Each structure stands twice: as structure tokens, then as C-alpha cells.
């Protein structure tokens, strides 16, 4: 089908204005996560099989493999690092798996110029049955701060739905009371309109979906493409989180992983890699470390993309960027290749160069006679940065 590029710009402008008006009322004030957090989390690949050696290896690999230089920063241990509490209620890491303790591990991660994150839960037990923080919010937060924690993911298993907002706010207050800057990530799967109260609970990001799986339907249909209505709630310091990345975990194609990375970046989503960083293929590196795509995710304007077109297997999402450009993602959700023509004939921006960058081919694109045609493979994406477009 033919897409009028001027329509893309017009709709982007209107959304921009509306979103800006909504965001300025609720901007986070803790100065953290001014762009979506980037890093690595143990859960998607390793589940409960975590240890201090794994975390050290992940930190090493983030540095040696270039991820740190590409912007990945947080090394987050998900569930199962904790086993019990001592007689004073202090939370205890698994002594077999973390024999040196959390302070030493945080110091190691900090020594690599990375940041250190942990996981806990608003209920009595975590999802894997480890001790939760219910009733211990201030004690746990003080302990995390003493260890040097920079990021807390806070889950919602074995918790109380009726007091969810208060319980998340309690931990938000506890983290603030430590005086240490700790990014606060809510994980209650997008329930109870968390996007509306997340910022006042002190959150910098909040999960908006159930758990992602390493398969197309979960990543694309259930998580990524379901985020349109949440765009007004994202902005510097407070982000929607459609869950961590599955890129490189092996059950999707590289084409699908490019779609995953493109969609998450358009959505201003946190980019938390969830694969084994020690054994990444070059193809996985090329997806996770495409700095032109990361620049879309990390754009300082912080506007989340919205859907412009959904027609058959075609989905077009656009995101206004700080330098006046617009990021455009044309997705093929279907099972067969699709040819798309982006038509710029009625573009009315006086003097604006009709110049774009194909962010996966890493090449400039010109709209010959005002149009550009391309073929997008099944489950693939054509991701453009159109310059001077707003
Ligand atoms: C929930 C979360 C996951 C992970 C597990 C750990 O399912 O959504 O991301 O943290 O708990 O048990």
C-alpha cells in the first residue's frame, strides 16, 4: 500500500503536543533513568541458576564484548539470589552460590564501571518461593543501599492485590529514604493501571505485560504491538516496560530479533538483554549493539512511538526524536514477504531535505520521485530515521 509521509509527520506532531502536555504534569523528580535503562538481567536465560561467577562473567562480557560502550549499564540478578533471613530479619544471599556476598559482587561490577541490580518482591515470597520484602521494605532497602545496589526490580507474587499500590509505594519510599540513587522497576505485569500510579509510587519503570517468551507471538503480538495506548505515560524518568529482551536466546530468527530490537527501541522500552553474554554470535551482537537503533531507544526527548497504520500484516509506528527527525518502523507481521511503498509526494515541509537513514542496512535512503519502495521479509522490519521531518 501507499503511505503518505506527510501524514506520518502530521500525526507525529499532534501526538507529540498531546503527550508533552500530559508528561510535564508527572515528570519524575529523582533524576534517574532519564532515558530507558539498559543492561542485562539473568532471568530469561538462566532462571534460578544464578551465581556470583555468572554475574562476574556477565559483567566481564559486557565490557569485553563492547556492550558497555554501546550503552548497556545495569547488571541485574533476578530471582533466587536470596535464601532466608537471619534472626534479625536481614535478608541473606545464597551462601553456596554467592560465597563472597553481595557487597563484594557489587564492588566487582562497579569496578567495571557498570551498575548493580537486584530483585525482590512485594509479597511474602518471590515468584520462585524465596523470601519477599513484605514487612521488611525499609530493612531490605537499607541493606541494598549498604551493598551498593543501583537498581531494584520488584515483583508481585504472593502479594495482596488490594494493597498493591501502597505496597509498591512503601518500597519506593524505603528506597528514597536510603539516600542512594536506586532505579526502581515495578513488575506487576501491567495490572491495576500501574502506568497511572507508578510515578507517584517512585517508579522509574513498570512492567506492562505478562512474562515474555522467546517466540514471535509472545514478543510481538502479546507484548510489543500491544503498547500503543500506553504511549502518553512514558517519558524521561518513567517508562513503560514490555519486559526484557529475548534476543540471542535462540528460538526466534535473526529477522524476528531485529523486529524485537526495533520495536522496543521505538517504544522507548528498557533494553535489558536476557541472553548468555559469554557465547553471543556475531548476529546477536549486531542486533543488540546496533548503535543507530539504540540511539532511537535512548533519544532524550523520551517520546514513545505510536501506531500510525495497521492494515493486514502491516504495522507502521512512528516516534518523534529530539533533533527534529522522526523514527519510522514498518513491520511485516505476516507469514509472507511484503512490498511497501512509502510515498512522500505530498510532503509539505519547506526546505526540509527528504533524507532518511535505513538503520539496519546502515545506509542513507533517498526517496526517488518522492517515494521509496522496499520488500520486508516475513516478521521483519524496515526501520528509518527521517531527518528534519518535524
Ligand atoms: C516473574 C517476573 C519475571 C521473573 C520471575 C522470577 O515471573 O515477571 O520477569 O522476575 O518472576 O521468578
Main traits of this protein?
390 residues; single chain; globular; TIM Barrel; eight-stranded parallel beta sheet; alpha/beta; 2 domains; Immunoglobulin-like; six-stranded antiparallel beta sheet; binds alpha-D-galactopyranose; 30% helix
Measured on Cα atoms, how large is the radius of gyration?
Answer: 21 Å
Could you say what the CATH architecture of the largest domain is?
Answer: Alpha-Beta Barrel
SS elements, strand count: 19
**CATH T-level fold name of the largest domain:** TIM Barrel
Give the overall form.
globular
- Tell me the name of the CATH class of the largest domain: Alpha Beta
Task: Report mean pLDDT, rounded to a whole number.
Answer: 91
How many discrete structural domains?
2
Biggest beta-sheet profile: 8 strands, parallel
Subunit organisation of the chains: single chain
Instruction: Work out the strand percent.
Output: 15-25%
Number of helices in the DSSP assignment? 12
CATH homologous superfamily classification of the largest domain:
Aldolase class I
The secondary structure category is alpha/beta
Helix proportion: 25-40%
Low-confidence stretches at least 5 residues in length (pLDDT < 50)? 10-27, 345-353
Unique ligands: alpha-D-galactopyranose
Strand order within the widest beta sheet = 10-9-8-7-6-3-2-11
Kindly report how far apart the N and C termini lie.
23 Å
